[in-house]
Design goal:
- By secondary structure, this protein is mainly α.
- It has 2 domains: 80 residues, lambda repressor-like DNA-binding domains (434 Repressor (Amino-terminal Domain)), CATH 1.10.260; 42 residues.
- It has 7 helices and no strands.
- Helix 2 packs across helix 3 and helix 4 runs antiparallel to helix 5.
- The model has no long low-confidence stretch (mean pLDDT 80).
């Protein structure tokens, strides 16, 4: 990562740009540019965000952004391949303790879809039958009320 930062710094200085000018043009903070040039990847919470910053910064300086992204990917691979299996297991156990309901470790960038209400194949026919029964009860009550109202009208006419 340090070599990438040094290349970017050298290209910026050769063009004659200040950190503030670059930060203003790329809509970044000057400290972000300084951290990139210093090779300080730990200053960024999101490693993918850093990757895109390097891409945009190298493109801005007229360097091959694909080469810089490839260099960054190699750095990232070298950095992550040094993580021991025990450290990965410990991190997984720690994540499992935090979220017992979720058995898989998900990326923080993954957007999980909310489950929509789903009807089971068995519950749908039951709901249809219940709806038909309620509808028939309602219709029968309306018919009974009509019959009762007709009877009371007839009785009143006879008197």
């Amino acid at each position: 990562m340090k070599e990438i930062g040094e290349d970017l710094k050298e290209a910026r200085e050769n063009i004659g740009l200040s950190i503030e000018e670059v930060a203003s043009d790329l809509k970044l903070r000057p400290t972000q540019i300084e951290n990139i040039e210093a090779g300080n990847a730990d200053a960024f919470k999101d490693i993918f965000y850093l990757k895109y910053l390097i891409r945009d910064y190298s493109k801005y300086l007229g360097l091959s952004c694909e080469d810089k992204v490839d260099e960054f990917n190699e750095y990232l691979f070298d950095h992550t391949s040094r993580i021991s299996i025990d450290d990965i297991r410990k991190a997984k156990k720690k994540a499992d303790k935090k979220d017992k309901n979720n058995s898989r470790v998900a990326s923080p960038y993954t957007v999980e879809k909310k489950e929509r209400f789903k009807l089971n194949k068995k519950t749908l026919p039951i709901l249809v039958v219940v709806f038909i029964l309620l509808l028939s009860l309602l219709v029968s009550n309306i018919l009974k009320e009509d019959d009762n109202s007709n009877k009371t009208e007839k009785v009143e006419v006879i008197k």
